[in-house]
Amino acid sequence: MTVTWEELGWERVAPGVGRVRLPGWDCTAGLVAGRDGALLIDAGSSLAEGARLRSEAERLTGRRVTHLALTHPHFDHVFGAAALAGAEVYAAVGTDAVLAAGAEELRADAVRNGLDEDTAEEAVTALVRPRHPVSGELTLDLGSDRQVLLANVGPGHTAHDLAVLVPGETEVVFCGDLVEQSGEPQAGPDAVPSRWPAALDRLLAFGGDDALYVPGHGAVVDAAFVRAQRDALAARFGVSP
């Protein structure tokens, strides 16, 4: 039985392109449907959340999730990845090493932020490391009707920030936590504040003035919002224009 994006709590951003705001940390996951498969953008904060995303993505598209793009290596974006068995996993170059060496810190950070200890331990034990590092730009082919561009636009929010551009009549850019709308952008110990404004400059060049920008947390925004956040971050961190 066909379901609509809205019936499953998803927001349709453009034809074949949508996103959902997950409970707990208001983290966004994105979905792009193609003729031959589907791309999920970020995987949620637990194996159960990843399984939910996979099930809903397959119901919405009628296709299996063939690709997974991780925008950055934080628990609320990567812990569900193991539930996407068989998907090809992409991330900014260096993410693999962070997940390999920093699994315990990811677990501890998740618990500090309120994730159940057993749930965090389960996710860390099954943690999926990306097989496809993106150092510049890379095009994914989801079928003759759909190509998606991945770009390593960081560092900024972390040292390993990946953006996803979906071309179309209205272009859509999934920003990860380089952009946040529901609160002030978070700069943790792995952020690179001095280079964050430049990362947003690259993001804006990537999408352009007419694109829709999907933040890691919060509502969809436009280029003016991203530009204003860029200026605010530059002022906050003392970065020259």
TrEMBL record:
<dbReference type="GO" id="GO:0016787">
    <property type="term" value="F:hydrolase activity"/>
</dbReference>
<dbReference type="InterPro" id="IPR001279">
    <property type="entry name" value="Metallo-B-lactamas"/>
</dbReference>
<feature type="domain" description="Metallo-beta-lactamase">
    <location>
        <begin position="26"/>
        <end position="217"/>
    </location>
</feature>
<protein>
    <submittedName>
        <fullName>MBL fold metallo-hydrolase</fullName>
    </submittedName>
</protein>
<keyword id="KW-0378">Hydrolase</keyword>
<dbReference type="InterPro" id="IPR036866">
    <property type="entry name" value="RibonucZ/Hydroxyglut_hydro"/>
</dbReference>
<dbReference type="Pfam" id="PF00753">
    <property type="entry name" value="Lactamase_B"/>
</dbReference>
<dbReference type="InterPro" id="IPR050855">
    <property type="entry name" value="NDM-1-like"/>
</dbReference>
